[in-house]
Amino acid sequence: MAISLSLVLLVGIILVIMIRNGRVKWGPALVAILFGFLLASSNVAPDIQEFLNSAAEAIADINP
Fold this sequence. Notes:
By secondary structure, the protein is mainly alpha-helical. It is built from three helices and no strands. The longest helix is centred in the first third of the chain and has 19 residues, at about 1-20. The protein starts with a helix and ends with a helix. The mean pLDDT is about 85.
């Protein structure tokens, strides 16, 4: 849960920065947000969560 919450905050911050810099307009940003909500309630959501967890574990296992 901590990984997904921090990932949501990171993506949210990036989206706000992109909107403020004019790289993404409000309309497409709203569509992307709504798509995210709909995707989270679909049957694909557990697969996406599993992929993100695997990617986070892989990154954590990298030794600097």
